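Annex B.
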Amino acid sequence: MPAFRPARRPGDALPRRTMLRAAGVGLALPWLSAMDGRSSAVAGPLDETPLAPELPEIEQQDGPPRRFVAFTLSLGLLGENLYPEQTGKDWKPSRYLEPLTDLRDQLTLLSGVSHPGVRSGHRAEASLLTANPAGGNGRGRNTISLDQYLAKHLGATTRFPSLVLSGGGSNSPCYTDGGAMIPAQESVEELFADLFLEEDPDVRRLHTARAAHGRSVMDLVLDDANRLSREVGPGDRRRLDEYFSGVRDLEVRMAADERWAKAKKPQVDVEPPDEIRDANEFIAKQSLMASVVKLALETDSTRYVTHHIGGSNRTAPLPGVNTGWHSLSHHGKDEKKLEQLAIVEGALIASWADFLRSLSEVKESGRSLLDSTTVLLTSNLGNASNHDNRNMPVLLGGGGYKHAGHLAHDRSDNAPLPKLFTTIANRHGLAIDRFFGEPGTQSGLELA
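DUF1552 domain-containing protein: predicted structure tokens.
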């Protein structure tokens, strides 16, 4: 592959396989307008996507560290079974809220909320934690998801800055600041091993050597990179800046990997879990994965977790259910399908309630682990039957908020959900005033 050479003549195209080289190290480049012999200024400016501030002020937090766990669903939840008729704290349990009655002081329900401009049905999974319409419609680059935004600025103190998990059957809703989807870990056995089982010493030494070798790539090619930046147009410079920032971030993570490769993993008095092989047991798999997530939080192995439950058509082995979940979600108001769907969704929420309860039983510094962990349950679909992305189901548990019960917004003219994301970021000490360009915080939900 050709190495970069400065001082191209005007109109000369930069070879598409150009690499930055120094001291035997080669760094491949992303596609640039200059590779077609065009100035990137002529090609047009890149889309300016409004994000939360790149370098927010980080406020010091007292007490135990703050954590965030998102449980995300592909196929929505039936609003008529979820939301109580009453607003505020004195709600009477709906069908789905029965398993959560003992946790009402740790729970806020938001109705009538959605991401502005997101109208892409199932594909809006990509927008679920980013709030970016481009994520779902495929016409633009996605942006960073809430979990990764927290992990980017606050996740460096733990062995795993974040965990991205899945019950299988779908993509991940987690995206880097460059818009790349983060693949999800689906195996609970492998997750447990990564968290708590020590590697063979030879394997650990190999990981350490690889991390140390890869850390200095940008330092080695820096002079070549600077020369190239001076030779291209402003749009290409932006692309290069974003790309080089991504490489720098990777090097920081590799440096952390080197440090953690030398450190012993925490020990837990729990037998390694057995993988659930039956794909129909997606609710049991969710519960098993959640039990390992609890251990990860308890040992401070990570503070930011997303567990996505994709829209498979598996048939949950529950009494009264004989049809696949995806088919049930497209119920067309058929009463038999609605009843079966309610059984499946009720079991998912009961599993989520069990996770909240398990955190409440762990004590640290005189408080519960639930008090320091914001736990979100949501979906990209409000009505899966007609692929409607409005009226997203949103349940928020724990986190040390002054919980407000049922916060009801207009179901015809939804309130913007990114305001809640800003509130969550503020709770974790990131002093931002907007997320994905949507200013303000969630009204009615105060920080304790």
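The longest strand covers residues 67-73. The chain has twelve helices and 19 strands. Further annotation is deferred to the next reporting cycle.
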